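hey m, so remember when u said the tokens were messed up on ur end? i reran from scratch. heres the input so u can diff it against urs
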Amino acid sequence: MKLLLHICCAPCSIMCVETLREEGLEPIGFWNNPNIHPFTEYRSRKSTLIDYAKSIHMELVTPGEYGLRPFVQAVAADIDGRCAYCYETRMEAAAQYAEENGFSHFSSTLFISPYQNHELLKQKAEEAAFRHHVELLYRDFRPYFREGQNRARELGLYMQKYCGCVFSEEERYAKRKKKAVEEER
């Protein structure tokens, strides 16, 4: 099996790669995350992943450039429904790359996050796999999330505070503001 692993960030990749390697699989990492904003956040996540991949001797593919404008244009009409497009875009890119480069399977580190809409993500990945004639290697990595985050802290990896899109950053600040107002009462 030749496995392409879409990677959202280095911290989320730690336990995904480790558990796959324990199964005897050697994933090749794939960075494609046009949703991340601002560019400095995108660059920090990408640079951290590149360094981490080198440290664990994992091949990493980083095609394309920063793609915020097309992402924002695509989700502007339905900001609350943006995650479906975000998952679709990233799973489509991974499946297409897998098909074009002789991979039999692909997966994603997004499957580790308890903050993602897991069923919707899985659906979008399955649809992309079907369209591109590759198999989705589905794994529910969520039980390893906390361990991976702790390991990332121990390694001193850059740790982000939101999923990546400008709208999730906005939601994070809105929750903080609401909490502060409630605490003042």
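this time it looks ok to me. The radius of gyration is 16 Å. if urs says something different then somethings off w ur setup not the seq
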